[in-house]
Each structure stands twice: as C-alpha cells, then as structure tokens.
C-alpha cells in the first residue's frame, strides 16, 4: 500500500533495494513518512499558562513519567527519601522562575515511594521541572537541595541550554501515526551491521544533503547504505546527553572541545535535539521516528548504542541535573557516600537496585514499542551485572530481565562485555539471548595481518566463529559480533597508516586513548606519496575486509571504512566534532576501488550461505572418513595443519553442504613472501585476490578459471578465495 504524501514532507529519497541474488538494483521513489498525529497533537507549543485555571487532583502512581490527556497532564516521579516535592511549570524556555509551582501533599499525592498529581488545564508543550527536599547527608548518599530544579528522568523531550541553566522538560503527546511501518526482523545470521554517528555521517560539506548532521541527513544517505549492502545501522548514542562542552580546548585549533560521541546521557527517553533539523523540541521525536520509518521502508534495521552504566552528573564535583537531586543513594553505586567509578566517567549506575532496573526496562520498552527500534548495543555492559558492592555477576538480575522481557523478545541485544573497572566477559556474558562485541576477534585478526608469530591457531578460531568462546550453553557463531575497527580506536585506513596514536588535538597531551593498537604503518607514519606503500596499504585494507566478511559470526563495519575515512591517527576522537570525525564523502570517489571491493565482499557473503551458518563447523573427527568433514584446515602444501608450527600461512577448505552448493577454498598469506599453495581437485575459479589489480581483486561474475591447476600462487600479505562446484574427491 502506498504511503500518504503529507504537507511539507522531508526530503524524499530514492529507495534502492538490492535483490537477494546477484547485484541487480531496483530504484523506486518513495515519499517519506510523517507522523501527522504527533504533529497535530503537539502543534500548539507552549502557550501562556494561566495558573488560575489549573486544577490539581491526586494522580496515579503508575506508569512513571509524564502523561498527556486532552487539556490535562499527569506527573509521576519516584523518590524514596524525599520529604517534599514540587512541580514547577514555566511559560518560556529562558525563564528562571516558574509561572506556577505546586507542592505535593504526601497524604494525597504519594503512594509508597511514588509522587503523582493530575493537573487539569495543562497541555502538550508545557515546560516543567521538579524540586526535591530531603535529608542533607552526603555520607549516606543524600544530596537533596530544595533550591535546585531537577529534570524528570522519564521526560520525552527537552528544551533550553544546560550551560545557561535553562534546560527544561517538555510535556509531549505520544499518539503518533506510524502508518505501515514494519520492522525488518532480520535473522541474526543474515545481519551485517554498519556503525555510524548521526552527526558525523553527513555533517561534512561533501555530503551534499539538505540537512547535514541530522536525522534527516542520514535519511538522505540511505541509498548509499543500500548500495553497500549492509542490513543494520547501529547509531552511536542518540539519547539526550547532558555534558556537551568539555571545558578545554584543542591544542591544535584552539577551539573548545565537545562531547561528540554522546556517551554521557541525562535524558534516557528523549532523542538528542542536537541531531534534529528543527529547533522545536517536540519535533525531535518526530524526526527520529521519521528516520526509523525510512530505514525500515528500505529494509534496514536500527540498533541504538545505549549507555546505562553512568550519567553526565559525574562524581561529587559534577552538576546536579536529575538523579542526584531525586534520590542519589538509589540511582548510583556508593561507598560511604563516595561514588564507585567502574565506568571511568565519575559514577556508576546502580543496576542492582530493583527501582533502577525498572527504570532501564521502561526505557528499553519505550524505544522498542514507541520508537520502533530493532535492538540495542549496551555500552560497558558488564556494569549491568555489578551488584551493590560492585562485584561482577555473569548473569545478574537485570541482564536476565532484559533477556526475558516479553516486549524485548524480538529485538537484538548486543553487549560490550567489559567495563572500565577491570571486568572482561567476552564469551561469558548473559547467556543465549545476548550477542557480544568480540574484542578477541578484533585483536586476533589484527595480530595475524600484522604478522605476529604464533597466531595462526587463534586466527583460525576467529575465522570459524570463535568456538572457544561461544560453543557452550546453546551459544553459536551468531553470538559473536566480529569487527576490525569501531568508533573507539583507529579507522581502517588509520590502522594501516599509523604505528602510534596521534591525539594531540584532544587537549590531553596525547595521554588519552589506547597505546597498543596492534597496527602497522607499512613504512611511513601517516600520509605518504610513496606509491608502493599506498598500494600495500590498500591491499591490507582489503585483507581486513575480506577476513571480516568471510568469518562466521555477525560482521560489523565502521562507517566510512568502505571508502577510506581517516582521523589522522586520532584513536580517541570522542571530543572531535570536526572534520577529524566527520565522513568526507569526496573519498567515495577518490577511493572507489576500496568501496567496490567492500560492496562485493558483502555480496559474496550473502551469496554463500555457508559463511552465514548459525552452527559451528565440526571439522574432521579423528577416525571418521574425511568425506564427513564440513571444514578442513590445510597448510600451503595441502596437508593437515601442524598448529605448533611457527608457520603462519593457512588454507581452509569448505566442501559443499548439498549437491548444488559451492565449495570454497580460502588461502591466507600474511608473510612478506609469495607462496604457492597446493589446491584440492578442481576446477576452481578465482573469486577474491586482494593482491590483484581491480577489477580482478574480487570477481562478481568469475570467468577466470584455473582449470585443472594443482597450485595457486598467493602473493605476499594477501587473501585468495576460490570457488567451484562440488569436486569428485575431497582433499
């Protein structure tokens, strides 16, 4: 059914859908969705409030947060230790004093630990805050200040400036029309993740979008994602974050630095206004949901990077914005009033407390049920399992609750299975419902291609799905999120261009960021005009990409790596809202060969189901006929691998599963010498050769048969992949 064309539509985009077979594309112009019900409900904005017309009644203690009715609103907030609570309503964003303030009556407006009132005469668009009074006992964790306004942790939208003291919550109506939105619900084994930053994706002038750096700008680039072939977009934090300006300047430009990545939440239910094209706060929700609807219409999923491990209030020196002023001892992990810091950001959310667990679950359900997102990547997820004393539990109560929650049952759950307090749970986080960022995959693949000794066995394990980590308790290759690079660290181009980090622009004297990047510059640190080095660097990028998309597990590509995005050696660009972090789209044309290779490597993965299997290879069982093997590891001579050998070259034979399946022979040479590999009986066709000049580096429709050849020369530091119909005899 066609979607309705609406008044003032966002820039339309051409929906380019890649077919499942081959590389044909279908271009079909589709008008962008608008949630007209939402816009109509919230069109009034914040008209002048007449306090004389407001009437207050006891509210309902659930659900938590604000709720809007026709000419009325309900306000519900938790605080166990508060003795007094006020609701403050403002006429204008810049107002410091409320036009109306109401003190809750504990006898009428408190049920247990929940304070709630129903106010007739308020409408959608009203600005509000709370004040709380209670014990002043820092040693016990209490920081109540009745003179200070605090934010509603359940607020759906914010306006104002946190630095000018004008930040306020906004009452919004959530009755939005979703038209015919249908989440793709793509199986995990068929998922290909693209990690990107909403602002950085299109902020550079080379993006040529109408609304650079916004949700709408990302919508305009959907055709690029479709051409590339990814299935799922993972967005760095888009929940409203408090800390923005960092209070220090770049040592290179002299400009004040900002919290660009956004890992400093304060408004967990609200899309960040910084990424909206409209200054009207209540339209931020609409713009984000338009993005979700457009991605779904294109068949793409949306995963949010969420931060439930800390907030932007920091430690004792940080600002009181929300949780600290509402009930500090409940929301944070404390030791005699001092903040436990397992996040590296000053505080740690008390995920062991049932009230906090409910808050996090309410938030996740909201993003799924109301905003239609398809999954979550949990930043520093080990903190979700820390108990009240800070001890790590592999399957803490919150981790289990998220896994078993009925609303979240169909969404993807991905853990960054470590934290800044020393926990490292890769391979053991949370059970069968949880996938993990596989940091060991990243490190093992980097070590192999750098040429480290004694890494062949580990590389083979990572290539075949990391069974050493996940072959237990009903886990499988789908639990491994494989990545070479991500937002945190070098880009792919920088990984092959720098031996050392270059974070001088961050204003911390290059002390920040990881020191050991398992990288190699291949002859010169940074940019160079040396043609031999440039050729090798391109070849190494292809090696990493080929490995990523040939591996069992779920591949994740860092946005911009497909066309050689660089951060100039900065491996910790969290504070760089600048060209250091923004995608330079002119590189798409300049590095067209790399983009083509990435696109075809993804297409090759899609065309070969054996690379997307959801079970581990069993290999060759000792004593069983070799014909029963589903995978055989071979050395360059075609014989069984001696895993104790110092040799690092490796071949992998994957026989056809059915009579009409394709057999694959993968050959990896990470040495500085060309090597002739022995081949199983053919005939074979060359599908990938990262040392060959384009377009022979990856063959879309291969005609380059090797006929009856028994060997294949694999160039130094390269990957070669062969395919063939089923041979008559296994090697």
Number of structurally distinct domains: 3
What portion of the residues fall into strands of 2 or more residues? 15-25%
Tally of alpha and pi helices: 16
**What is the first-to-last residue Cα distance?**
53 Å
Shape: elongated
| CATH class call of the largest domain | Alpha Beta
Summarize the structure.
This protein has 731 residues and is of the alpha+beta class. It has 16 helices and 37 strands.
Q: What do these coordinates show?
A:
The protein is elongated. The longest helix has 20 residues, at 531-550. The protein is an alpha+beta fold. The chain folds into three domains: 49-170, Immunoglobulin-like; 189-514 and 545-609, Glycosidases (TIM Barrel), CATH 3.20.20.80; 619-724, Immunoglobulin-like (Sandwich).
List keywords for this structure.
single chain, 731 residues, alpha+beta, Immunoglobulin-like, TIM Barrel, eight-stranded parallel barrel, six-stranded antiparallel beta sheet, 16 helices, 20% helix, elongated, disordered N terminus
Give the SSE map.
Blueprint: E1 13-18, E2 25-30, H1 36-41, E3 55-58, E4 65-69, E5 72-78, E6 84-90, E7 100-103, H2 106-109, E8 110-111, E9 114-120, E10 127-133, E11 136-137, E12 142-143, E13 149-150, E14 158-159, E15 168-170, E16 193-196, H3 198-202, H4 215-220, H5 222-228, E17 232-235, E18 239-241, E19 245-249, E20 256-258, E21 265-271, H6 282-297, E22 301-306, H7 323-331, E23 334-335, E24 338-339, H8 354-369, E25 375-378, H9 397-404, E26 412-415, E27 435-437, H10 439-450, H11 456-463, H12 467-470, E28 480-483, H13 492-495, H14 531-550, E29 554-558, H15 587-590, H16 592-607, E30 632-634, E31 650-654, E32 663-669, E33 675-678, E34 684-689, E35 705-707, E36 711-714, E37 718-724
Parallel strand pairs: 16-17, 16-29, 17-22, 22-25, 25-26, 26-27, 27-28, 28-29
Antiparallel strand pairs: 1-2, 3-9, 4-5, 5-9, 6-7, 6-10, 8-9, 10-13, 10-15, 11-12, 14-15, 18-21, 19-20, 23-24, 30-31, 31-32, 32-37, 33-36, 34-35, 34-37
């Amino acid at each position: 059914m066609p979607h309705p064309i609406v008044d003032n539509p966002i820039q339309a985009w051409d929906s380019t859908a890649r077919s499942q077979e081959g590389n044909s594309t279908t271009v079909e112009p589709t008008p962008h969705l608008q949630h007209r019900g939402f816009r109509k409900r919230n069109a009034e904005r914040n008209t002048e409030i007449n306090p004389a017309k407001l009437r207050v009644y006891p509210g309902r203690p659930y659900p938590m947060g604000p709720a809007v009715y026709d000419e009325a609103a309900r306000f519900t907030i938790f605080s166990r230790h508060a003795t007094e609570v006020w609701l403050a309503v403002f006429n204008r964003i810049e107002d410091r004093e409320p036009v109306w303030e109401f003190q809750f009556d504990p006898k009428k407006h408190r049920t247990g630990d929940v304070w709630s009132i129903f106010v007739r005469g308020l409408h959608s668009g009203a600005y509000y805050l709370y004040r709380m009074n209670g014990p002043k006992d820092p040693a016990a964790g209490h920081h109540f200040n009745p003179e200070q306004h605090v934010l509603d942790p359940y607020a759906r939208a914010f306006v104002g400036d946190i630095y000018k003291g004008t930040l306020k919550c906004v009452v919004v109506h959530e009755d939005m029309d979703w038209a015919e939105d249908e989440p793709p619900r793509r199986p995990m084994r068929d998922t290909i993740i693209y990690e990107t930053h909403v602002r950085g994706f299109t902020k550079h002038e080379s993006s040529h979008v109408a609304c650079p750096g916004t949700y709408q700008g990302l919508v305009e680039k959907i055709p690029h994602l479709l051409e590339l072939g990814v299935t799922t977009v993972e967005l760095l934090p888009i929940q409203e974050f408090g800390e923005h300006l960092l209070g220090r300047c770049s040592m290179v430009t002299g400009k004040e630095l900002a919290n660009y990545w956004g890992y400093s939440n304060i408004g967990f239910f609200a899309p960040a206004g910084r990424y909206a094209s409209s200054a009207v706060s209540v339209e931020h929700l609409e713009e984000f949901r338009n993005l979700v609807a457009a991605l779904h219409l294109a068949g793409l999923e949306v995963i949010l990077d969420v931060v439930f491990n800390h907030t932007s209030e920091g430690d004792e020196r940080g600002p009181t914005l929300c949780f600290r002023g509402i009930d500090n001892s409940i929301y944070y992990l404390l030791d005699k009033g001092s903040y436990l810091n397992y996040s590296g950001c000053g505080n740690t959310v008390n995920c062991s407390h049932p009230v906090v667990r409910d808050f996090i679950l309410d938030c996740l359900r909201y993003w799924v049920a109301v905003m239609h997102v398809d999954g979550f990547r949990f930043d520093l997820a080990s903190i979700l399992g820390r108990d009240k004393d800070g001890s790590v539990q592999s399957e803490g109560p919150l981790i289990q609750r998220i896994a078993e929650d009925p609303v979240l049952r169909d969404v993807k759950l991905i853990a960054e299975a470590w934290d800044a307090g020393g926990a490292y749970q890769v391979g053991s986080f949370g059970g069968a419902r949880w996938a993990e960022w596989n940091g060991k995959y990243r490190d093992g693949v980097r070590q192999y291609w750098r040429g480290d000794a004694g890494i062949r066995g580990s590389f083979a394990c990572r290539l075949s799905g990391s069974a050493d980590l996940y072959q237990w308790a009903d886990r499988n290759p789908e639990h491994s999120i494989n990545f070479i690079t991500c937002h945190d660290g070098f880009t792919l181009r920088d990984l092959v261009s720098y031996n050392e980090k270059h974070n001088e622009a961050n204003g911390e004297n290059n002390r920040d960021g990881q020191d050991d990047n398992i990288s190699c510059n291949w002859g010169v640190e940074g940019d160079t005009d040396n043609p031999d080095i440039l050729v090798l660097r391109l070849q190494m990028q292809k090696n990493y990409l080929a490995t990523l998309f040939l591996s069992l597990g779920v591949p994740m590509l860092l946005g911009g790596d497909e066309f050689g995005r660089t951060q100039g050696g900065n491996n910790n660009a969290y504070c760089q809202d600048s060209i250091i972090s923004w995608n330079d789209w002119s590189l798409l044309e300049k590095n067209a060969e790399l983009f083509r290779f990435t696109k075809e490597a993804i297409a090759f993965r899609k065309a070969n189901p054996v690379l997307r299997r959801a079970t581990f290879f069993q290999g060759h069982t000792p004593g069983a006929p070799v014909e029963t093997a589903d995978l055989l590891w071979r050395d360059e001579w075609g014989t069984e691998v001696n895993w104790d050998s110092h040799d690092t070259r490796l071949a992998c034979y994957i026989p056809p599963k059915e009579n009409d399946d394709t057999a694959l022979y993968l050959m990896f040479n990470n040495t500085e010498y060309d090597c002739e590999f022995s081949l199983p009986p053919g005939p074979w066709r060359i599908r990938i050769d990262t040392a060959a000049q384009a377009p022979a580096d990856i063959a879309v429709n291969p005609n380059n048969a090797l006929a009856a050849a028994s060997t294949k020369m694999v160039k130094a530091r390269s990957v070669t992949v062969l395919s063939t119909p089923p041979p008559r005899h296994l090697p």
